[in-house]
Design a protein that fits this description.
CATH superfamily: Decaprenyl diphosphate synthase-like
InterPro entries: UPP_synth-like, UPP_synth-like_CS, UPP_synth-like_sf
GO molecular function: ditrans,polycis-polyprenyl diphosphate synthase [(2E,6E)-farnesyl diphosphate specific] activity; magnesium ion binding
Shape: globular
Radius of gyration: 18 Å
Strand content: 5-15%
Strand order of the largest sheet: 3-4-2-1-5-6
Oligomer: single chain
Order of helices and strands: EHHEHEHEHHEEH
EC number: 2.5.1.-
CATH class: Alpha Beta
CATH architecture: 3-Layer(aba) Sandwich
Family: Belongs to the UPP synthase family.
Number of strands: 6
CATH topology: Undecaprenyl pyrophosphate synthetase
Bound molecules: 3-methylbut-3-enyl trihydrogen diphosphate, magnesium ion
Largest sheet: 6 strands, parallel
Helix content: 40-55%
Distance between the termini: 19 Å
Function: Catalyzes the condensation of isopentenyl diphosphate (IPP) with allylic pyrophosphates generating different type of terpenoids.
Length: 236
Amino acid sequence: MNVPQHIAIILDGNGRWAKSKGMPRNYGHAQGSKNVERICEEAWRLGIKYLTVYAFSTENWSRPKNEVDALMTLLRNYMKTCLKTAAKNDMKIRVIGDIEPLDENIKSRIKELEEATVNNGGLNFTIALNYGSRDEITRAVKKIAEDCREGKINPDSITEKTVNDYLDTHDIPDPDLMIRTSGEQRLSNYLLWQLAYSEFYFTDVPWPAFTKEELIKAIEEYNHRHRRFGGVEEEK
Ligand code: IPE
Ligand code: IPE
Ligand code: MG
């Protein structure tokens, strides 16, 4: 089986999954975060090198305050757990998104996590937090404009690689496969630039119920895709 190097996941459907079990939405988020831990381990075992998950979008602030507060508390606690699992599994953690508006406690935990794992050689695990692709591109454009003004770069020399280098994901290869759970078939502002040539896989399974078997199904489906990148396939 040809295993994708990088899988990006929109882990959706946590709230609806909980509701279907007669539980509050935050129970779904808690179980969803536990599932992230499990899938990280499975992904590495299957030979995946990069896993990027969408944890909180720039649009998710529009949810009711109690849900946002509960999600922030969950993320804070998750960072602590993640520090342990990263050490155990040799994972390298990165956070993408605009972390500036997050509270100091979360910010210092992110810094701690990234610094503690920077030299690890296992799974490259990236968490998209207060992430929005349009926001990421806007921040990159601003920074490029500033660097032009200061004479650090010449506008005539800007290439696709320059733009890529200013994105939060500058040191991560583009995803080969994008998975969205829970039946929704949209990007919701996730990695618009980076997913230009990725294969998309949608499943009705909500994220907390997404197992290793579901991951294998997605990879098998990926194996049936023909990636052409605008070219033509060689005749066999
Ligand atoms: C996705 O699960 C995770 C976050 C946005 C934090 P949802 O909370 O969107 O779950 P549903 O889609 O409402 O079921
Ligand atoms: C996308 O899910 C964001 C995350 C999974 C963090 P949403 O549930 O917020 O997306 P929409 O609102 O259904 O598009
Ligand atoms: Mg959702």
